[in-house]
Amino acid sequence: MRLILASALAYLATPSLATTVNIPNVVSNSTVTAESTSVAGNLDAPKLTPATPDQSAYDWWYFDAVSTTDNASVVLVFFNSGPDGFAVPDATVLNVGIDGLYANGSAYSININTTSGAVIDYDDNYISGNWTGSGISFFGTNLTGTPVYQITLDAPEYGISGTVTMRSRAPSHYPCGPNEAGQTEQLVPHVFWANMLPDAATDVNLTVDGSPVSFADGAGYHDKNWGDAPFADSVSSWYWGHAHLGPYSIVWFDAIDSTGTEHHSGYVAKDGVFSGGCGDAAVVARPWGENSTYPPLVTTGIMQGLELTFDLGQAGEFVANVTTGSAVSTSDTYVRTIGTVVGGLVGSNETFEGAALFEEFKYRTS
Ligand SMILES: *[C@@H]1O[C@H](CO)[C@@H](O)[C@H](O)[C@H]1NC(C)=O
Ligand SMILES: *[C@@H]1O[C@H](CO)[C@@H](O)[C@H](O)[C@H]1NC(C)=O
Ligand SMILES: *[C@@H]1O[C@H](CO)[C@@H](O)[C@H](O)[C@H]1NC(C)=O
Ligand SMILES: *[C@@H]1O[C@H](CO)[C@@H](O)[C@H](O)[C@H]1NC(C)=O
Ligand SMILES: *[C@@H]1O[C@H](CO)[C@@H](O)[C@H](O)[C@H]1NC(C)=O
Ligand SMILES: *[C@@H]1O[C@H](CO)[C@@H](O)[C@H](O)[C@H]1NC(C)=O
Ligand SMILES: *[C@@H]1O[C@H](CO)[C@@H](O)[C@H](O)[C@H]1NC(C)=O
Ligand SMILES: *[C@@H]1O[C@H](CO)[C@@H](O)[C@H](O)[C@H]1NC(C)=O
Ligand SMILES: *[C@@H]1O[C@H](CO)[C@@H](O)[C@H](O)[C@H]1NC(C)=O
Ligand SMILES: *[C@@H]1O[C@H](CO)[C@@H](O)[C@H](O)[C@H]1NC(C)=O
């Protein structure tokens, strides 16, 4: 009895940081504030105040994974977006976008509205998100150690069910530095970023329209973006992507904002340590081969590949050559594709090969 009481008191004495955020499936009429500097605690928590977006704001949780042996891949985005913030066609404020490829390279695409709202529970070490009524939810555990995430899809009426399980293999970070309080979260003005899983060993076990999308130990990734102004008014073009090659995990962001200024965020991790930052040379991404107009235009086709140069300071220079593979989804203003990558530290005798998943936005018309 005494022991039980003592442990109950010890439990009560521990400050509880658990927070539950209930988000209704509506647009807020009050102006939203976007977090722009990281706070102590959960990097993956909601970033808008209030959590419900106004017409021009958005806050999304993004997950993807690609097989290292064939085209099998999946991209899952839990959107909480005002209609002008990040336009998702034919969707309510809260919706889940699911795109990917079967092993043979054929694409699938499903979008599911929530019928009610979303519930997000989090503390420093845990997060769960349930887009209620969609059948799709996620949780992340061990966030202060080596994070593990799982997404559960139970939407047979939309043709999709199964799980995606991700085990982190590279440290979390913000655009300019490590996962700690006081870091800037701005990628370009009005667009913010937090990268919980720059690289994750990922098991995918999905059934999509009756056919499997299934692989073990793929190259997975999880981040979130949010913003307080329409995305398409904030960005002119951008290249983002991630890859796993040999012992390396890489993430690149090279974007041009609406005023024409280029912004960079580069990340290269090995053995649990990363180099990177947001200086002008942190990473430079340039298209090569066919359709390599730079900056890209609405009329530019899919680039044949991307050359990436990362300045790692004292750790040297890392160069990666990405070759475009099968496209997951494309429009005039957007390309998302899988690919292969070859790269290594300049001056070392070793290069590594691996799998990449990347995207391009292009809003310029001339
Ligand atoms: C915002 O205002 C519109 C028009 O007055 C109203 O219909 C809507 O319910 C309001 N939204 C919220 C979240 O209160
Ligand atoms: C999702 O909601 C949007 C907006 O209300 C609607 O246009 C669309 O048809 C809905 N999608 C589905 C699959 O019900
Ligand atoms: C991947 O998809 C392409 C078509 O986009 C196809 O030619 C290729 O054979 C597929 N790869 C595998 C391993 O099936
Ligand atoms: C998500 O919410 C729905 C509706 O409340 C509930 O039925 C379902 O069990 C929840 N899913 C998870 C994983 O908690
Ligand atoms: C949690 O993270 C720690 C530190 O990286 C690791 O030692 C431990 O195995 C992780 N636990 C789980 C359940 O993954
Ligand atoms: C994949 O999912 C199916 C049905 O959802 C299940 O029967 C099977 O055991 C799962 N396989 C793995 C490797 O988890
Ligand atoms: C690729 O695989 C999917 C799922 O099994 C199938 O529906 C589709 O017809 C296949 N595509 C081709 C070109 O064979
Ligand atoms: C380049 O773009 C054109 C026009 O969109 C397209 O037909 C072609 O396949 C693209 N080249 C590559 C390598 O994707
Ligand atoms: C990237 O790879 C392609 C295809 O192998 C090659 O043609 C190109 O020269 C490479 N680019 C660089 C900068 O190495
Ligand atoms: C690269 O250099 C290291 C150190 O000199 C050596 O141990 C290794 O065998 C070399 N690898 C190759 C592929 O030549």
Question: Mind sketching the topology for me?
Answer:
Elements: H1 2-13, E1 19-24, E2 33-34, E3 48-49, E4 58-66, E5 73-81, E6 94-101, E7 107-113, E8 117-123, E9 126-131, E10 136-141, E11 148-155, E12 160-168, E13 173-174, E14 177-178, E15 186-188, E16 191-208, E17 211-227, H2 231-234, E18 235-245, E19 248-257, E20 262-270, E21 273-277, E22 283-288, E23 305-311, E24 317-331, E25 334-345, E26 352-362
Antiparallel strand pairs: 1-8, 2-3, 4-5, 4-17, 5-6, 6-7, 8-9, 9-10, 10-11, 11-12, 12-16, 13-14, 15-16, 16-17, 18-19, 18-26, 19-20, 20-21, 22-23, 23-24, 24-25, 25-26
Bound molecules: 2-acetamido-2-deoxy-beta-D-glucopyranose (NAG) (10 copies).
Would you give an account of this structure?
Residues 18-226 form the Diels-Alderase N-terminal domain. Keywords: Signal. The relative contact order is 0.14. The strands form four sheets. Strands 1, 4, 5, 6, 7, 8, 9, 10, 11, 12, 15, 16 and 17 form a 13-stranded antiparallel beta sheet that branches. The chain is mainly beta and 366 residues long. It has helices at 2-13, 231-234, and strands spanning 19-24, 33-34, 48-49, 58-66, 73-81, 94-101, 107-113, 117-123, 126-131, 136-141, 148-155, 160-168, 173-174, 177-178, 186-188, 191-208, 211-227, 235-245, 248-257, 262-270, 273-277, 283-288, 305-311, 317-331, 334-345, 352-362. The chain contains two helices and 26 strands. The longest helix is centred in the first third of the chain and has 12 residues, at 2-13. It folds into two domains: 1-229, AttH-like domain (AttH-like fold, Beta Barrel); 235-366. Helices cover 4% and strands 57% of the residues. The model is unreliable at 1-16 (pLDDT under 50). The protein starts with a helix and ends with a strand. One 2-acetamido-2-deoxy-beta-D-glucopyranose is lined by residues 130, 132, 137, 152. Residues 26, 28-29 line the site of one 2-acetamido-2-deoxy-beta-D-glucopyranose.
